[in-house]
Amino acid sequence: MPPRVDVRDAGSTELATSRLSSGDRRRLRSRFVRLLQRLPVTAIVVAPYLILVLPMAIINSNPKSGFIAGLVVVAAASALVIELILLPLRARKSWELDIHSANSSHTRLGTIARTTALVSIVADSVSAAYGGGTIFQQVSGQVSSSLAVRLGGLVFGWKYIAVGLLLASFLGGRMSRRSVQRWIAAIALGQIFVTSLTARTAPVFAFITFVAIVGLLFGLFQVRYVAIAIAITFLLWPTIFTIRNGIRASGGVTVSTTVTAGDRLRFDLQVSRAGELRVPVKIETPTVLDAIRYGAIPRILDPGRPVLSTGSQINVYLGGDTTSSFTFLPLGTIYFLGGYQTILVFYAGWALAAGLLLLPGGAPGPIRISVFCLVLSGPLGWTSTYPDSMVGFVQYVVAALPIFLIIANTRQRCGNLPRLEIRGSAYSSLEKARVRQRATAAASRAPDSHDRETSRSSRSEERAMDSISDRRPES
Questions:
Q1: Cα–Cα distance between 413 and 438 in angstroms, integer?
Q2: N or C: which end of the chain has fewer CB within 10 A?
Q3: Separation of alpha carbons 434 and 356, rounded Å
């Protein structure tokens, strides 16, 4: 049997922690979840193409199906090689114990996660209500000068941070699985409300896809429920498409009557169009200085800078104008701008970044989980725009620094951590350190006449704990 993990309050602060339930442990131990944990970037690269893009290409006899499959193979192979190299860095402890210990030591993690989620929902909704990120703004080519939009832009990436912190709260026992699911559902509903104002469906679908991936990765959702959600989304898509077009038409945007809901799902046509061009193509793309300017400096402090949109530049190259944008999805866009070699470097680099966030030094804590979420939602997002997504990643990390600072300052010291009672060979060495520290603290507070008695008691407690660690696992 796997080691049992019981979490109890051993400090002065009452902790809302408990051991992971048998169902949660089962989700963390499932083969599919373990595959995601070991090869997350490879799975993330392949999944949308296996689920949607390639099936649509094959069903509709797209002559560029082989080209699309080739792009997927190159990207997946580069990520797979890096992730296989990094696998030996994974800690040998059980994942459930390690990830619980890494996240249970933050005393206010649940409160921070809920606050971040609430601020994100309100900020995104208010920003959209004042014209931020709408299709009407995109068509006009103008950036809203509203203070609400500029302030909302500062925390635009907080919804991804909130999901990461909620997951960490669940894994550390600070919030129940149902509570975390409700809060993530609230964020998703907030994004749906934003979509009703912006008339842009791509961001909400990208967010829901991101939630499904990280939820599976960290055992929050079961595979069958995610599969059911995907099926329901496909069934509801024609209705959603009609509502979206109605909102656009009511706002004065011309809507094509020849493009159907099914046509809009032909992402394979977007990717395959890159195969018709001579690559690499030289267009205006963000530079390193642009990444620093747009990523590290908020627009509220630099209001005069132009909108950063590689999609608009691609649309101009294809014969359109800057009032609309076009991409070939991330794989096709990277190929369009740099060829196959850039695909290799890009996905190998981000696989390395993701692996370093997840593997070395044991399971990730809340900050590493949050940064990993930003990687998935930005550069590795299946609808993101290269290279704008990397600039956005820098921007989101900078905006999250205050949250990370608060999290770091609310971490409990070793002596106040919740006590872990572990039966079996997986006894944690951290518990031994906590016993020694409590013994030292007790000895320093005791009167001189009781020093020897306290010391003997402490050594006795330590020997008792060592004997527990030497017991054989219970059958």
A1: 12
A2: C
A3: 28
